């Protein structure tokens, strides 16, 4: 190997981790477009002409090559993405071992998976949380519609030129949220012609297909590239997969059948004893009533084959009545929702003068989604007493007033009402207008204005406890003249248009279907997030030192953020059985930034870089500096190092003093040991400060022989003043009777109030990334072997009261913060690619090591279970044919051997480790004209 050739090769792959696990042979299926794809590993791309747009992730310096950057960077071309067979951009994260799961899209009852009612997925580098990874589109911010940027909403996959991921802190360049790194999606702005592609993916019970197109028009002066995509995904329920179709019992307020509080001795119409199924409930009351004269009994049909429930008798039970009724709603809840989405993206560039260009980028995203869940919610708030089934209700077998505790509709309700469907509509708009050019031969400018807006409209149903109580009293049905202050004219209980509702299991399938009106009441919410961003950057050569240029970039940014929440009456008034309360909000803030960057090469083989950014949020400000170096000691060895301080600002809502969210969680009440769903009310905290992190990386790339490379990086993150959301369980454990635990008149915990705070320390994590690659030819056959391994060495989790070692754990202890991720020690993606003329075959192996299953354990408790390792193989074959090889056909299999995910307590599987889809087969066809 000549020194010049070796020098070029070293420069090309010294991009830190150098080869992403899915990076295939550079020439096997090179795109026939003019897109700036990743260079083959044995060549260097020529520098783009000065008048073309230059995007270097992690730098504002136009004349600094990506390969001279010292930060670890993964670069993936459009051809690389196509070889994976992913159905959406977000799916590419499963081939990046440095990404630890995602938020959203998939239900995660244990910790909350984000928005599980629609097709939305986040990035999550290093497992530091979705908010710690900054997602950019062509180097510019996109509004985090779901609290994070939905990767599937950015641009059609067909328009992607490359993905670049910076794997260390980048706050010095981009400001807040770039703690764990940056994922930058770069579109093809120079495409010419027409390209169409379609893919059908068969997943048992949940097939998906997408259709995409791209059109590029123009000449050397003006060019416009438009792309579009339509994607359809069928829903997948827990009952469709063995791993999630298990008995996961609900009890208490979520029981089915429910329980009843007897306030008096049961009696028949003739004042005799009430005997049901051969059991005397009057005698049971006489024997076991408490001092207040009440007794709680389970539904008389609890445990019957018809109800598919389990009767768990109390310790002193005579064999009926006393105890708990357990039923599993697991099968009726979703793994993922159904969704249909349309995405349009356009890039237009106009050279209005030599060396100067105007550009416009525009994106439209629309999604309709349907979440199929259990037909009614649990009673999460009952007030001082539960709903009362009066003794006058002819369907009440006890003959006296009884309180009802349970779901308004059980597993099938009446008339076979199996599901409650929540419908979400997402609309996202993204507009960028800007100009760039050369002021002189040494200086360039860039200025842009960005408007990015996301809106989510949700239509759900909850039980209005007022209408429910009215139906128990005989005023049920949509045509009964019942008003907020009582019965209207002509309304008679159980007569005419007014119906009695029974919550007893014996009546589930025989009641009038119109009573659904009293149980599934529509409620709507609208959530809007908006960015207005103005930014200007000046870069060029400040001075030459000993004949070597000192390049700098200086800039400023003004960002206006807005978050709006609007909720219908049932969400706000507190009468909903499960959801709410919520409050309308309209929150705003302004962020002002200045930043600077300098780059200098004191030697041909040594590049030094320094950057810093100052951001002012009004009530706090922060400075984020960064130093980095890239040294090619000899052409076969490169060393890089970077050190920075990164930060993440509190979200707008988190910095307010408003009620900003209501969720539900399984809470163990330490007063009686009961485990039930309870409301968790989240309030903002105006005193919150940014969470900060010290980030360090050092790595090397070795080129032992021609066509081979090995990169090793050690990385380290340490949070200071990390923003943590209080754990509801920790709050009630700390003070069961305190002001942050809301109890009803009977002393039952109904809600827990939590807020965010700056933890004394915060998560500390470190590890080693190893990337190896060897490519070559044997006769007409080209081949590539590749591997990308991420080893987790340290993952210390701060609970607010103690710090524990989370490596190799699920990190779902009772007091684990929601930001704590599952932490397998090893994540690896390896593969081989073979090409022969117009044929190509790729095989990938994905592996995640096992973790301890600590769900709802106390920190320090002995291990009770493990979530096994996840090891799957993927394969794809591609064939190009026709005039100029303009047609392409690809077939592939994901999870070739139909490997089921390893079992996890309560949730069935762990979404950040494995997926429940099973074998996925797909066929894709594309054409270029």
From TrEMBL:
Domain TonB-dependent receptor plug: 67-182
InterPro entries in the cross-refs: Beta-barrel_TonB, Beta-barrel_TonB_sf, Plug_dom, Plug_dom_sf
Pfam family, one: Plug
Alphabetical list of Gene3D superfamilies matching this protein: TonB-dependent receptor, beta-barrel domain, TonB-dependent receptor, plug domain
Primary location group: membrane
UniProt keyword list: Cell outer membrane, Membrane, Receptor, Signal, TonB box
Domain TonB-dependent receptor-like beta-barrel: residue ranges: 442-896
Domain of life where this protein originates: Bacteria
UniProt-annotated location(s): Cell outer membrane
Signal peptide boundaries: 1-30
Single GO cellular component term: cell outer membrane
UniProt similarity note: Belongs to the TonB-dependent receptor family.
Protein name according to UniProt: Iron complex outermembrane receptor protein
Organism: Sphingomonas trueperi
Lineage, uppermost ranks: Bacteria, Pseudomonadati, Pseudomonadota, Alphaproteobacteria, Sphingomonadales
């Amino acid at each position: 190997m000549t020194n010049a050739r070796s020098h070029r090769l070293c420069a090309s792959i010294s991009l830190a981790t150098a080869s992403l696990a899915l990076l295939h042979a550079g020439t096997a299926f090179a795109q026939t477009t003019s897109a700036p794809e990743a260079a083959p590993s044995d060549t260097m791309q020529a520098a783009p002409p000065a008048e073309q747009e230059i995007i270097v992730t992690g730098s504002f310096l136009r004349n600094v090559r990506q390969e001279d950057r010292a930060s670890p960077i993964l670069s993936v071309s459009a051809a690389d993405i196509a070889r994976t067979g992913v159905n959406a951009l977000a799916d590419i994260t499963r081939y990046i071992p440095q990404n630890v799961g995602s938020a959203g899209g998939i239900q995660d009852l244990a910790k909350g998976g984000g928005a599980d009612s629609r097709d939305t997925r986040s990035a999550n580098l290093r497992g530091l949380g979705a908010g710690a990874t900054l997602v950019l589109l062509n180097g510019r911010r996109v509004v985090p519609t779901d609290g994070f940027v939905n990767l599937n909403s950015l641009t059609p996959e067909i328009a992607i030129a490359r993905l670049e991921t910076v794997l260390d802190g980048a706050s010095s360049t981009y400001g807040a949220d770039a703690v764990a790194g940056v994922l930058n999606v770069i579109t093809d702005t120079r495409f010419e012609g027409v390209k169409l592609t379609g893919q059908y993916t068969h997943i048992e019970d949940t097939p998906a297909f997408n259709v995409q197109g791209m059109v590029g028009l123009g000449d050397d002066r003006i060019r416009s590239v438009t792309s579009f995509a339509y994607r359809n995904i069928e829903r997948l329920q827990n009952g469709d997969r063995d791993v999630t179709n298990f008995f996961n019992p609900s009890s208490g307020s979520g029981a089915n059948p429910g329980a009843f509080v007897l306030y008096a001795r049961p009696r028949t119409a003739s004042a005799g004893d009430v005997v049901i199924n051969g059991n005397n409930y009057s005698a049971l009351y006489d024997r076991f009533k408490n001092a207040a004269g009440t007794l709680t009994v389970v539904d008389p049909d609890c445990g019957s084959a018809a109800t598919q429930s389990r009767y768990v008798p109390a310790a002193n039970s005579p064999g009926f009545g006393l105890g708990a009724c357990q039923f599993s709603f697991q099968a009726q809840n979703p793994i993922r929702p159904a969704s249909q989405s349309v995405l349009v993206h356009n890039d237009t560039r106009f050279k209005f003068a030599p060396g100067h260009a105007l550009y416009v980028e525009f994106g439209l995203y629309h999604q309709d989604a349907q979440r199929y869940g259990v037909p009614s919610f649990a009673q999460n708030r009952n007030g001082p007493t539960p709903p009362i089934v009066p003794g006058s209700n002819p369907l009440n077998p006890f003959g006296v007033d009884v309180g009802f505790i349970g779901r308004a509709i059980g597993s099938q309700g009446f008339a076979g009402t199996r599901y409650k469907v929540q419908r979400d509509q997402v609309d996202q708009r993204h507009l960028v207008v800007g100009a760039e050019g050369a002021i002189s031969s040494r200086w360039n400018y860039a200025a842009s204005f960005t408007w990015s807006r996301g809106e989510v409209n949700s239509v759900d149903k909850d039980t209005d406890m007022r209408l429910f109580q009215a139906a128990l009293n005989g005023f049920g049905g949509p045509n009964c003249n019942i008003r907020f202050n009582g019965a209207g004219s002509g309304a008679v209980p159980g007569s005419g248009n007014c119906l009695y509702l029974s919550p007893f299991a014996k009546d589930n399938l025989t009641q009038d279907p119109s009573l659904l009106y009293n149980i599934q009441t529509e409620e709507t919410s609208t959530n809007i997030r908006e960015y207005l961003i103005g930014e200007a950057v000046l870069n060029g050569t400040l001075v030459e030192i000993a004949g070597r240029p000192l390049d700098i970039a200086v800039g400023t940014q003004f960002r206006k953020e807005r978050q709006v929440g609007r909720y219908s009456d049932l969400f706000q008034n507190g009468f909903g059985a499960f959801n709410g309360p919520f409050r309308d909000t309209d929150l705003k803030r302004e962020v002002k930034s200045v930043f600077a960057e300098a780059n200098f090469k004191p030697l041909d083989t040594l590049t030094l870089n320094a950057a810093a950014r100052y951001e002012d949020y009004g009530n706090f400000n922060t400075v984020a500096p960064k130093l980095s170096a890239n040294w090619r000691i000899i052409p076969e060895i490169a060393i890089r190092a970077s050190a920075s301080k990164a930060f993440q600002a509190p979200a707008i809502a988190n910095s307010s003093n408003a009620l900003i969210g209501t969720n539900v969680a399984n809470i163990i009440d330490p007063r009686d040991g009961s485990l039930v769903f309870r409301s968790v009310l989240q309030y903002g905290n105006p005193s919150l400060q940014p969470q900060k992190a010290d980030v360090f990386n050092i790595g090397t790339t070795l080129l032992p022989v021609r066509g081979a490379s090995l990169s090793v990086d050690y990385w380290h993150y340490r949070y200071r003043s990390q923003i943590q959301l209080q754990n509801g369980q920790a709050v009630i454990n700390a003070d069961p009777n305190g002001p942050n635990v809301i109890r009803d008149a009977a002393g039952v915990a109904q809600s827990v109030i939590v807020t965010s705070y700056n933890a004394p320390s915060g998560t500390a994590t470190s590890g080693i990334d190893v990337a190896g690659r060897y490519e070559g030819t044997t006769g007409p056959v080209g081949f590539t072997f590749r591997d990308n391994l991420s080893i987790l060495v340290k993952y210390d989790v701060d609970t607010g009261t103690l710090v524990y070692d989370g490596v190799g754990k699920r990190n779902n202890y009772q007091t684990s913060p929601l930001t704590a991720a599952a932490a397998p020690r090893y994540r690896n993606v390896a593969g081989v690619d073979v090409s022969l003329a117009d044929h190509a075959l790729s095989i990938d192996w994905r592996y995640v090591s096992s973790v301890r299953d600590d769900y709802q354990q106390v920190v320090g408790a002995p291990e009770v279970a493990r979530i096994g390792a996840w090891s799957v193989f993927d394969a794809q074959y591609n064939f190009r044919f026709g005039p100029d090889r303009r047609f392409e056909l690809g077939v592939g299999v994901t999870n070739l051997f139909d490997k089921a995910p390893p079992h996890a307590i309560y949730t069935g599987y762990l979404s950040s480790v494995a997926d429940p889809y099973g074998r996925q087969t797909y066929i894709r066809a594309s054409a270029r004209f």
